[in-house]
Protein backbone atom coordinates (compact mmCIF):
# COMPACT_ATOMS: atom_id res chain seq x y z
CA UNK A 1 0.00 0.00 0.00
CA UNK A 2 1.29 3.46 -0.86
CA UNK A 3 1.36 5.80 2.11
CA UNK A 4 1.00 9.47 1.32
CA UNK A 5 -1.58 12.20 1.64
CA UNK A 6 -2.59 12.41 -2.00
CA UNK A 7 -4.41 9.41 -3.54
CA UNK A 8 -2.65 7.90 -6.54
CA UNK A 9 -4.48 8.20 -9.85
CA UNK A 10 -3.54 6.01 -12.80
CA UNK A 11 -4.61 6.19 -16.43
CA UNK A 12 -4.64 2.83 -18.20
CA UNK A 13 -4.27 3.14 -21.96
CA UNK A 14 -5.21 0.07 -23.95
CA UNK A 15 -7.38 -0.94 -26.89
CA UNK A 16 -7.40 -4.71 -26.32
CA UNK A 17 -8.32 -6.18 -22.97
CA UNK A 18 -4.98 -7.94 -22.64
CA UNK A 19 -2.52 -7.28 -21.00
CA UNK A 20 -3.82 -4.29 -19.03
CA UNK A 21 -7.28 -5.50 -18.01
CA UNK A 22 -5.78 -7.56 -15.16
CA UNK A 23 -3.76 -4.56 -14.10
CA UNK A 24 -6.92 -2.60 -13.24
CA UNK A 25 -7.88 -5.25 -10.69
CA UNK A 26 -4.37 -5.33 -9.23
CA UNK A 27 -4.32 -1.53 -8.92
CA UNK A 28 -7.70 -1.51 -7.20
CA UNK A 29 -6.17 -3.84 -4.62
CA UNK A 30 -3.53 -1.15 -4.02
CA UNK A 31 -6.22 1.57 -3.59
CA UNK A 32 -5.22 3.28 -6.82
CA UNK A 33 -7.98 5.22 -8.58
CA UNK A 34 -7.99 4.23 -12.26
CA UNK A 35 -9.33 5.66 -15.48
CA UNK A 36 -9.14 4.20 -18.96
CA UNK A 37 -8.28 5.61 -22.35
CA UNK A 38 -8.59 3.47 -25.48
CA UNK A 39 -6.61 5.63 -27.93
CA UNK A 40 -3.72 8.07 -28.07
CA UNK A 41 -6.18 10.85 -28.88
CA UNK A 42 -8.27 10.05 -25.81
CA UNK A 43 -5.06 10.00 -23.75
CA UNK A 44 -4.06 13.49 -24.99
CA UNK A 45 -7.54 14.76 -24.21
CA UNK A 46 -7.52 13.23 -20.72
CA UNK A 47 -4.05 14.59 -19.88
CA UNK A 48 -5.03 18.03 -21.15
CA UNK A 49 -7.97 18.46 -18.79
CA UNK A 50 -7.26 20.95 -16.04
CA UNK A 51 -9.10 18.97 -13.37
CA UNK A 52 -7.61 15.52 -14.08
CA UNK A 53 -3.96 14.90 -13.34
CA UNK A 54 -3.07 11.22 -13.17
CA UNK A 55 0.24 10.42 -11.55
CA UNK A 56 0.98 7.33 -13.60
CA UNK A 57 0.03 6.24 -17.10
CA UNK A 58 0.21 2.53 -17.87
CA UNK A 59 0.18 2.02 -21.63
CA UNK A 60 0.02 -0.98 -23.91
CA UNK A 61 2.68 -1.08 -26.61
CA UNK A 62 0.21 -0.84 -29.52
CA UNK A 63 -3.02 1.14 -29.71
CA UNK A 64 -5.67 1.64 -32.39
CA UNK A 65 -4.26 5.04 -33.38
CA UNK A 66 -0.62 4.81 -32.38
CA UNK A 67 1.82 3.29 -29.95
CA UNK A 68 3.41 3.74 -26.55
CA UNK A 69 5.71 6.39 -28.01
CA UNK A 70 2.68 8.59 -28.73
CA UNK A 71 1.46 8.15 -25.16
CA UNK A 72 4.93 9.07 -23.89
CA UNK A 73 4.86 12.24 -26.03
CA UNK A 74 1.40 13.15 -24.70
CA UNK A 75 2.61 12.68 -21.13
CA UNK A 76 5.51 15.01 -21.85
CA UNK A 77 3.01 17.71 -22.81
CA UNK A 78 0.72 17.16 -19.80
CA UNK A 79 -0.02 20.06 -17.46
CA UNK A 80 1.37 18.12 -14.48
CA UNK A 81 4.26 15.69 -14.21
CA UNK A 82 3.25 12.12 -14.99
CA UNK A 83 5.24 8.89 -15.23
CA UNK A 84 4.62 6.44 -18.06
CA UNK A 85 4.97 2.71 -17.56
CA UNK A 86 4.94 0.62 -20.71
CA UNK A 87 3.15 -2.72 -20.39
CA UNK A 88 3.77 -5.54 -22.82
CA UNK A 89 2.48 -9.10 -23.14
CA UNK A 90 6.09 -10.30 -23.23
CA UNK A 91 9.52 -8.97 -22.40
CA UNK A 92 11.19 -7.91 -25.62
CA UNK A 93 14.60 -6.48 -24.78
CA UNK A 94 14.56 -4.09 -27.75
CA UNK A 95 11.24 -2.51 -26.69
CA UNK A 96 12.26 -2.56 -23.03
CA UNK A 97 15.51 -0.69 -23.67
CA UNK A 98 13.88 1.66 -26.19
CA UNK A 99 11.12 2.56 -23.71
CA UNK A 100 13.55 3.38 -20.92
CA UNK A 101 15.88 5.33 -23.22
CA UNK A 102 12.97 7.44 -24.48
CA UNK A 103 11.88 8.38 -20.98
CA UNK A 104 9.42 5.75 -19.80
CA UNK A 105 9.59 5.36 -16.05
CA UNK A 106 9.42 1.57 -16.17
CA UNK A 107 8.40 -1.46 -18.21
CA UNK A 108 6.19 -4.29 -16.94
CA UNK A 109 4.85 -7.62 -18.14
CA UNK A 110 2.04 -9.72 -16.69
CA UNK A 111 1.37 -11.35 -14.36
CA UNK A 112 1.20 -8.34 -12.04
CA UNK A 113 2.47 -9.68 -8.74
CA UNK A 114 1.56 -7.56 -5.72
CA UNK A 115 5.12 -7.02 -4.36
CA UNK A 116 6.48 -5.95 -7.76
CA UNK A 117 3.48 -3.74 -8.53
CA UNK A 118 3.65 -2.15 -5.08
CA UNK A 119 7.36 -1.43 -5.55
CA UNK A 120 6.82 0.17 -8.98
CA UNK A 121 3.88 2.23 -7.66
CA UNK A 122 5.89 3.54 -4.70
CA UNK A 123 8.82 4.55 -6.89
CA UNK A 124 6.63 6.18 -9.55
CA UNK A 125 4.45 8.00 -7.01
CA UNK A 126 7.51 9.31 -5.17
CA UNK A 127 9.07 10.47 -8.45
CA UNK A 128 5.94 12.22 -9.73
CA UNK A 129 5.12 13.93 -6.45
CA UNK A 130 8.72 15.16 -6.10
CA UNK A 131 8.67 16.54 -9.67
CA UNK A 132 5.32 18.24 -9.06
CA UNK A 133 6.59 19.91 -5.89
CA UNK A 134 9.76 21.00 -7.70
CA UNK A 135 7.74 22.46 -10.60
CA UNK A 136 5.37 24.20 -8.19
CA UNK A 137 8.27 25.73 -6.25
CA UNK A 138 9.97 26.90 -9.45
CA UNK A 139 6.73 28.49 -10.69
CA UNK A 140 6.23 30.41 -7.46
CA UNK A 141 9.83 31.68 -7.34
Structure commentary:
This protein is an alpha/beta fold and 141 residues long. Helices cover 44% and strands 19% of the residues. It contains five helices and seven strands, in the order E-H-E-H-E-E-E-H-E-H-E-H. The protein has helices spanning 21-28, 40-48, 68-76, 93-101, 114-140, and strands at 9-13, 33-37, 56-60, 62-63, 66-67, 83-87, 106-108. The chain has a five-stranded parallel sheet with strand order 2-1-3-6-7, with helices on both faces. A two-stranded antiparallel sheet has the order 4-5. Helix 4 (93-101) links the parallel strand 6 (83-87) and strand 7. Helix 2 packs parallel to helix 3. The chain is globular, with a radius of gyration of 14 Å.
Structural class determined from secondary elements: alpha/beta
| Largest sheet composition | 5 strands, parallel
Name the beta content range. 15-25%
How many DSSP-defined strands?
Answer: 7
Uncertain runs with pLDDT below 50, 5 residues or more?
Answer: none
- Element order: H for helix, E for strand: EHEHEEEHEHEH
Give the rounded overall mean pLDDT: 90
What's the gyration radius in Å?
Answer: 14 Å
The tally of helices reads 5
Main β-sheet, spatial strand arrangement: 2-1-3-6-7
What's the shape?
A: globular
Helix content: 40-55%
Distance between the termini: 34 Å
